[in-house]
Amino acid sequence: MSWKDFEENAFKYLKNEYSNFSFLKFKKHGGSNSNIPDIEILKNNNSLFFLECKLKESQIGQFVVLKDLNSSSFIFSSANKGNELRAQAIIKHMNDQFEYYSSKKSVALRCSKNEMIDSIKSYLSSKKVKFLISSNHHSDFMKYPIRFTSADNVEKHFEISGVYREKKSGSSNLPAKDLENFKNILGMKFSSFKIEQSKGKTFVSFGESAPKSPYLKNSLYFLSKKNELHFEVRKLSNTNNSNVIFKLEPKKEIKTDDSKLFIESLNT
Fold it and tell me: Which pTM was predicted?
């Protein structure tokens, strides 16, 4: 079970737990779309605020930076959405230690904890997120109760850390112009295979032997397994994004949460 299951179960929990608030409506967003928070609360059909769902250790408020080797500096990417001000102190710190952050693909943030906290809170504020709801289990809320955390109290309920990481920007359906090249690559490695296309997607099936590695031709193409001999073909991006990522880990010693503040916010 995954964070997606937790989002769905947390949504159901809220609808059930606060069903007596007849003037409220809960609307689920979330999923893989990080541009809008997970759950929206509407009061009398007007948007009141949002909640973010966090299962166990999680990520929050990441942003993309561009690495300029000529000037030995990092720059806030125009591809980011939201308030650039929340990144300024951290980027300044990274530029002061450019050699450290540019030397590896992934390194821990060395900036102060307060700078990370301020950036996270600014991110939550810009998204109208007033509370985080979290648990250490995707559905067993009797044993692992839902915890409410006010956006103002993030550092009281979570251990906060950060990392700078370079990673591929994702994958896409196999473009039509790449089909022949893909066939040639397969033909050099496999004597028998069948390619099918459906609704813009490309699939390949093998006989009795399937690829041991999902990557083909220096990671240009990726085979996503559907079953032992059937794969979806994906083309990997050749673009590396440099990300600043914040991590949240629930503190074990917290005995109470901000559920009372949550209820008060519903009544405002």
Answer: 0.74
